[in-house]
Amino acid sequence: MSSIGETKGAQEAFAELYDQYLDKVFRYIKYRVNGREVAENLTSTVFEKALVNFAKYNSDRASFSTWLFSIARNVLVDHYRVDGRRHSIPLDDVSDRPSTEISPEEAFELKEEAEKLNLYLAQLPQEEQEIIRLKFAAELNNRQIARMLGLTETNVGTKLYRAVRKLRDSFKEPHNG
Amino acid sequence: MAKESSEERQFSDNLDKLLAGVGTEPAEKMSEDCRTAVDFARRLTSLRDEPSPRFKQQTRNRLLARLVEQEAARQKEERHRPWGSLGRLLSLSPVWRTATVTIAVAVLALAVIWQSGLFNQPEGDIARRAPAPESAPPPQTAAAAAPTPAPLLELRPLETISAKPGEAVRVELVFTNTGPQSIELAPFPPAIHVAQSGTDKVVRSFAAGKARRAIQASETVTYALLWDQKDDNGRQVGPGRYFVFIDDLVFGTGTQPDETRRSFGRVVDVLIQSP
Questions:
Q1: Do A72 and A143 reside in the same domain of the chain?
Q2: Does any CB of chain B come closer than 8 Å to the CB of residue A67?
Q3: Do A110 and B47 touch (CB under 8 A)?
Q4: Are residues A1 and A79 in the same domain?
Q5: Would the N or C end of chain B have less CB density within 10 A of its end CB?
Q6: Which CATH superfamily is domain B153-272 in?
Q7: Is A106 part of a structural domain of the chain?
């Protein structure tokens, strides 16, 4: 058994992992909650929980990303339980993206597209939604997703391809939604 | 069916490349359906949101400060543990040290004598400890009454193989039947995969065989796999650490051939050295 805490300076190791995974965790959460501020708070909670349990993390049992996104999923479950909120269309965020090198027209288009994406995503079966989030936001590979969702890797590949094509077709249809 | 499966795989591979910021395959190598799905995936990635730099920095600072606090608290707690106190007591003076060691030895000796039963072994107990008479029910009867134990299969503990680039790597999978009855692995060999450590990305998959393999109780069977260090596309993998895993091993007894499925997450580590 080897733990990261044992093999590297804990601070250095944690900072490295934080830099590597912060964006991914934020995006994953952002897909599921309404608003940037809520997403940032929950992202922060995920890393706090990871920090508290960091010494217990065993790299032989699961990759760090699988472990971290399991925490993220639990944080979201708690959030829904306490808050009673369901994922809804975030209306406030595309326009206040940190990358501000876009014109107001482009910002408007992005916002519209993001709204459409959330709408069509919500129409997919829960499992396909989660696969899309774990792939596009968390950037997990199919094997890691398979482990998290209790599916086979091939199954994840099939469902992912199907879900992306459904979304693509929904975007094509002008009157959908 | 096979076409669909290969298309799904091609899509997944291209999507992983896209997310890793690496160029995807040329469009003409993909079907229309796959190409448009990859194009749409590219569009989806552009819609992803990013946390603000301020949030990133503030959270980073706060967490690292908390880590320092946590570490300090842990060290403090360690200093106050009972064994820590005992250690300090022992280091105080030779008198204390001698007294503590004497008491510990006396307690240990008493425990050994007590365990041997010298003080409290009545005759009845001795009779109870004697071997069972021959009239005792035969073991088969007892076994028939008990539920059938689940078949057990173990793999040799994780080992690391180091290899030079391009050198064929011989991976030995040593299966031991640790249960009381013979078992059968089907298919044999199982599907075996090689993945890159850290990313868990599967670089090479070896398809399952079509045979069945019986393993008697306590028997060990070795299956040797030769990996030429190439990925599924026939390219030499880069230097670094890889691991071999078995995703779905099916085995069971003669009467119930498929009763147990197991995954062996990390069977062998392979370290490909830098050239």
A1: no
A2: no
A3: yes
A4: yes
A5: N
A6: Immunoglobulins (2.60.40.10)
A7: no
Instruction: Answer for the pair A50, A1: CB distance below 8 angstroms, yes or no.
Output: no
For residue B197, the Cα-to-chain-centroid distance in whole angstroms is: 13
Residues A135 and A55 occupy one common structural domain: no
User: Would you say B250 and B185 are in contact if contact means Cβ atoms under 8 Å apart?
Assistant: yes
Determine the Cα–Cα distance for residues A86 and A38; give it in Å rounded to an integer. Answer: 13
Interval B8-26: pLDDT, tens: 999 999 999 989 888 788 8
Of A36, A67, A88, the residue that ends a domain is A88
B48 and A27 within 8 Å at the Cβ level: the answer is yes
Provide the Cα torsion B248, B253, B256, B260; round to 10°. -30
Q: Is residue A151 part of a domain?
A: yes
pLDDT in tens, B227-255: 989 888 888 999 888 888 886 677 777 66
Q: Is the ipTM value over 0.85, yes or no?
A: no
Chain A positions touching B51 (Cβ under 8 A) are 22-23, 26, 39-40, 43, 98
In DSSP terms, B215 is beta-bridged to B183
Q: Which residues contact B238 (CB under 8 A, 6 or more apart)?
A: B272
What is the CB-side half-sphere exposure of residue B192 using CA atoms within 13 A?
18
